[in-house]
């Protein structure tokens, strides 16, 4: 029996119908049809991670944790693809080519014309790092990965090719409040000041893409793109895939900046009135403690109302603001963030004035995010919200946590991201884990080291606030391993208590083989198996196949971060990949060595036309 699915191409009415046979593999045909992508209610949408197809246990290989086995690493690739990969890495080792890659690519495009240039890119960089132009063209890549036990995280990687000046101008405009500064506004904390020098957020960032706000219409378009990604994931990965999104794509960054600052001020306010240190939003204080603190001031009308509005969770721990409200589409920010002055009892705002237009923009951002997550929930596809710069991140993290509370009631649909290069990473994760436990929602987290280190440090130095990054690489690694161990320990605790261990799900998103090895060893030591389906691993397409592929083939939950988009529009992404590869020479050297050995092995056995054929099934 064949299942039918249709995939829409961006900006086109032509449709491709995928026929999915009973083994779960694809055949595809173009049909002239105006049918939209099938809705979640269609019978085929029942084919999800729990369907018989995906539950079929495929072949499993033993895992060599030295990640030195070139046969296992590359058996999913043709020999021509290996030669292409080797060539790409050789080109990435050239300082001149890497430094001038964008100029060279543009020059070649103008000399060769689009057709030949596209062909050239597909046989080199694009072919190696990008899965295809649209949801249909990426299917063979996803299908191949799947047959070798690896699942996709889809990212539509089209980026605007802005000059530095354009990026700076857009950012300064979009990060500045609409209202002129008011004398009653609290003065900005240095971290949240808009500074033109750091307005181009792409500065020294290779590991992540950057969105620059243009207007509400572009945010609306970004939402639609994310939704198309969700649909593509659903229909191309049997519900096992993930979509990656960035909050800066969905709204005006000024609002994230303002909320981040409020969170920082709230922490300070709580420290002042509750005592102690730490970065928690919810100090372990009860309303009674606060009433005692305000004493007679508590009789004043405003203070009384403030205390009445404050919410507590089931253990009586107080939340200064009804944070859950910020993911409601009727949220009024200016009404939310007011606190009584501890000395006078007079109410004061923790934000600068927010214009009605900005309130509307914030509600738009939240509506877009709610739309995306609702569709993810209907399609049963998970969604990972990327972590960004520290001046946005408190807001991104808080909004994501509230989305988790709202949507992760039966399973982890929304995943947050924690950057372990931050001094506060461990404490953040523990605080959020505790909130998830108290409020009984599923906690999903991607752990990364962090992509913005250089600009974070330079900005902190220039604007005069404490460097948020760990002192050195070793401290970041220690933070990563400590945070991961704590998550594993809590999962085991859930298992032992007979609770659902899936209440905590973690993605180890790292190209560092020591960290991947650490995770595997800790899983064994603590007693968590791949079959528990609570720990997964993620690396980028075209990077560290020697880690991802053996993991997938051995039955670990392994993901490739899959960029896709038209050749010309993913050039900025490719440019960053080239530069990043130059920066991680040690890993590249290992990948190059393994590629060379495997190419020679295949050629010496006459396997130039080796055809990869996998019979693995992702866990
Ligand atoms: C699937 C996936 C998703 C990702 N999503 C995000 C995301 O949402 N947000 C994000 O910020 N990044 C994200 N990243 C990028 C990630 O944060 C890292 O930049 C990248 O993976 C390199 O780290 P590593 O562990 O792979 O490699 P390693 O080479 O082991 O580590 C390099 C990293 O170590 C840290 N580091 C290096 N030197 C120092 C130092 N002197 N002091 C302190 N720390 C140091 C930096 O974070 C640097 O990026 C993602 C990566 C992957 C694979």
UniProtKB/TrEMBL annotation:
Family of this protein: Belongs to the proline oxidase family.
GO biological processes: L-proline catabolic process to L-glutamate
GO molecular function: FAD binding; proline dehydrogenase activity
Higher taxonomy: Eukaryota, Metazoa, Ecdysozoa, Arthropoda, Hexapoda
Reactions catalysed: L-proline + a quinone = (S)-1-pyrroline-5-carboxylate + a quinol + H(+)
SUPFAM superfamilies: FAD-linked oxidoreductase (SSF51730)
Keyword terms, alphabetized: FAD, Flavoprotein, Oxidoreductase, Proline metabolism
Boundaries of every Proline dehydrogenase domain copy: 321-588
Biological role: Converts proline to delta-1-pyrroline-5-carboxylate.
Co-factor requirement: FAD
Signal peptide start and end residues: none
Pathway: Amino-acid degradation; L-proline degradation into L-glutamate; L-glutamate from L-proline: step 1/2
EC code: 1.5.5.2
Ranges of compositional bias, category Polar residues: 42-56
Region (Disordered) location: 42-61
Protein's name according to its UniProt entry: Proline dehydrogenase
Keyword Metal-binding attributed: no
Coiled-coil spans in chain: none
């Amino acid at each position: 029996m064949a299942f039918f699915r249709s995939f829409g191409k961006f900006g086109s009415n032509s449709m491709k119908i995928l026929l999915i046979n009973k083994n779960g593999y694809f055949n595809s045909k173009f049909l002239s049809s105006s049918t939209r992508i099938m809705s979640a209610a269609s019978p085929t949408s029942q084919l999800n991670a729990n369907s018989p197809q995906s539950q079929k246990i495929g072949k499993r290989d033993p895992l060599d944790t030295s990640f030195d086995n070139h046969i296992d690493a590359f058996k999913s690739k043709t020999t021509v693809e290996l030669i292409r990969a080797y060539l790409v890495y050789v080109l990435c080792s050239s300082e001149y080519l890497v430094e001038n890659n964008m100029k060279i690519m543009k020059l070649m495009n103008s000399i060769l014309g689009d057709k030949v240039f596209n062909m050239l890119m597909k046989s080199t960089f694009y072919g190696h790092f990008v899965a295809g132009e649209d949801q249909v063209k990426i299917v063979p890549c996803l299908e191949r990965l799947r047959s070798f036990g690896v699942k996709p995280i889809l990212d539509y990687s089209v980026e605007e090719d802005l000059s530095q000046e354009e990026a700076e101008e857009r950012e300064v405009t979009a990060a500045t409040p609409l209202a002129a500064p008011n004398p009653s506004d609290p003065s900005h904390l240095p971290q949240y000041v808009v500074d033109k020098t750091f307005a181009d957020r792409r500065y020294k960032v290779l590991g992540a893409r950057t969105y620059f706000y243009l207007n509400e219409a572009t945010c609306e378009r970004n939402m639609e793109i994310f939704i198309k990604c969700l649909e593509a994931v659903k229909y191309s990965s049997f519900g096992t895939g993930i979509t990656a999104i960035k909050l800066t794509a969905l709204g005006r960054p000024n609002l994230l900046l303002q909320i981040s600052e409020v969170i920082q001020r709230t922490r300070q306010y709580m420290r002042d009135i509750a005592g102690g240190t730490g970065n928690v939003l919810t100090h372990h204080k009860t309303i009674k403690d606060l009433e005692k603190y305000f004493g007679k001031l508590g009789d004043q009308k405003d203070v009384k109302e403030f205390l009445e509005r404050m919410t507590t969770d089931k253990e009586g721990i107080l939340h200064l603001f009804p944070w859950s409200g910020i993911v409601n589409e009727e949220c009024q920010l200016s009404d939310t963030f007011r606190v009584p002055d501890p000395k006078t009892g007079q109410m004061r705002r923790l934000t600068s004035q927010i214009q009605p237009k900005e309130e509307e923009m914030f509600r738009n951002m939240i509506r877009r995010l709610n739309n995306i997550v609702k569709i993810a929930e209907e399609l049963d596809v998970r969604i990972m919200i990327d972590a960004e710069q520290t001046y946005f991140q408190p807001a991104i993290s808080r909004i994501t946590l509230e989305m988790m509370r709202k949507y992760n009631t039966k399973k982890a649909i929304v995943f947050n991201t924690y950057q372990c290069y931050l001094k506060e990473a461990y404490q953040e994760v523990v605080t959020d884990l505790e909130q998830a436990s108290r409020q009984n929602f599923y906690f999903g987290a991607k752990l990364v080291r962090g992509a913005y280190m250089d600009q974070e440090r330079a900005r902190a130095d220039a604007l005069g606030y404490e460097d948020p990054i760990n002192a050195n690489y070793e401290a970041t690694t220690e933070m990563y391993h400590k945070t991961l161990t704590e998550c594993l320990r809590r999962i085991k605790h859930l298992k032992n208590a007979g609770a659902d261990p899936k209440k905590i799900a973690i993605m180890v998103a790292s190209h560092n083989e020591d960290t991947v090895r650490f995770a595997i060893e800790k899983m064994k030591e603590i007693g968590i198996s791949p079959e528990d389906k609570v720990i997964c691993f993620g690396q980028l397409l075209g990077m560290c196949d020697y880690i991802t592929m053996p993991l997938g083939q051995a039955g670990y939950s392994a993901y490739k971060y899959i960029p896709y988009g038209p050749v010309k529009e993913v050039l900025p992404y490719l440019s960053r990949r080239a530069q990043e590869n130059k920066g991680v020479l040690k890993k590249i050297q290992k990948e190059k060595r393994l590629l060379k050995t495997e190419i020679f092995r295949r050629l010496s056995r006459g396997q130039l036309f080796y055809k990869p054929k996998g019979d693995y099934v992702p866990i």
